[in-house]
Each structure stands twice: as C-alpha cells, then as structure tokens.
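Title: Prediction job returns without error message
Component: structure pipeline
Severity: low
Priority: P3
Assignee: unassigned

Description:
Job completed but the reporter wants confirmation the result is attached to the right record. Sequence as submitted:
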Amino acid sequence: MTKRCGWCGDDPLYVNYHDQEWGVPVYDDDALFEFLLLEGAQAGLSWITVLRKREGYRRAFDGFDFRKIARYTDKKLDSLMKDEGIVRNRLKIFSARGNAIAFMQVQKECGSFSDYIWSYVDRKPVVNRIKKMSDVASNTDLSDAISKDLKKKGFKFVGSTIIYAFLQAAGLVNDHAIDCFRFQECQELAK
C-alpha cells in the first residue's frame, strides 16, 4: 500500500494533487501565479474547496494569465461575483488584479517572480522532516518575511499562513512526511 501524508485522505482529487503537484518545485512564473491566486482564494476555507473550484478559476481568470488579469476592469471583476465556479468574495476577486499588477512589477525588478521567490531559499527547497501532521507548521520566519515583503509590494491575501501554504504547494518547502512516497521524489525534482 502506498504511504501518503496524513492530510491527503482518499478523495481522488486530493490524492491526485498530493501525488502529482504538492511539493514539486515550481520555477515557472505562470504556475507560481496560479498557486498564489488559488492560495489567496483559500483564505478562511479548506484547500479541497478551492481545489474543487480550480477549473472554475481557470475559466474565469483566463487560464491564470496574470497579464490579462492585470488589465481587468472593475466591470469584469464585478461580473465574476456571479460566477458560481469560484469563491465569490469581492475582496478576493479584486485582489487578483492587484496581485497580477504587483506580480509583473516584481518580474520587472527581479527578472522573474521565480527568481524573486526562490532567492529566499537560495534556490534549494527547505526540507522539513515531518513525522506526524502536528509537526507541520502553519507559518515560519520564512513565510513571515516573504509575507511582509509581498505586502510592501502591494500584494493582498498574502498573510504568513497563506504564504506558507504557497511555499509548500510550489515546492519551496518540502513538508511531505518522511514516510510518504513523495518525500524523496520531490527532493530529486529540485534543481
């Protein structure tokens, strides 16, 4: 029997996300923006709720194209309040545009968002040796520092807990349990 992290459960969507994406180092700006948008949408909700709406987000937000999202009008954003395929929270919806603009500013300043975010970990994932779920942090000094800097840069819905979840999802932090089959695999995927 395949051993997975305890939070994964047996929901096929969750299992696939755990087995294929969570903790895999992501260096592509488009994919990093997708995780940032989705993690921000999760604030106050369970990840499975957002994961179930991921395709709705992909459709509603032009495939997570931050260049297009940065140009959304208020009218376009207001129209998304009627879209049942996403979390219909006005602040979260409007933050997508502001975050897309801030994201592009970081790209301009740093060459890419990937270069910016990975510089916090010297381009090598932080490896935690998780033995039980209670060992998993909800935030760290690292997520505190990144959150603070992103807020200074104009990002919204980037609190430390959200950023820590982002770091885990995008593989900057490997929080797979040490007895999970993905722990070592994700280590080997790091550049």
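Comment from assignee: result matches the submitted record. The mean pLDDT is 96.
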